[in-house]
Amino acid sequence: MPGTTESFEVLVFDVNEGEVSQSREPIMAESADAARQLAGRLAETHAGTIALSRRGRVAIGECESSVVLEQHGRIGDFD
Questions:
Q1: What is the pLDDT of residue 60?
Q2: pTM summary value
Q3: I need a labelling partner for 56 at 20 to 30 A (CA). Which of 6, 7, 41, 69 fits?
Q4: What is the DSSP code string of 8-69?
Q5: Euclidean distance between CA atoms 69 and 35, whole angstroms
Q6: Residue 79 domain-assigned?
Q7: DSSP, res 71
């Protein structure tokens, strides 16, 4: 679809006071493979990670649901 962009990001989760929550801002990646690799590396030192792909038409504010590329460990809620 013309004007559609795809972005890739990694979310990082840690346990705080018994609750799993996102521990930092999303980390942008250059590609799906880069997001998967980063999620794998970060999972070694965090409770969990998730690599996501998001597609949308930024010019008109339209965004599809996120697609999970890879998940490691425990993750909490994310938007």
A1: 73
A2: 0.85
A3: 41
A4: EEEEEEEEETTEEEE-SPPEEESSHHHHHHHHHHHTTSSSEEEEEEEEEEGGGTEEPPPEEE
A5: 8
A6: no
A7: E
Q: Would 78 be classed as within a structural domain?
A: no
Residue that has been written with the tokens 């890739």 in this structure: 8
pLDDT value for 22: 93
74's tokens: 């425990």
CA distance linking residue 67 with residue 55, whole number of Å: 9
> Containing domain of residue 12, as a range?
5-73
Q: Are strands 62-63 and 67-73 parallel, antiparallel or unpaired?
A: unpaired
Note whether 50 and 71 are within 8 A (CB): yes
Is residue 10 within 8 A of residue 42, CB to CB? The reply is yes
Q: What is the mean predicted confidence (pLDDT) over 30-54?
A: 97
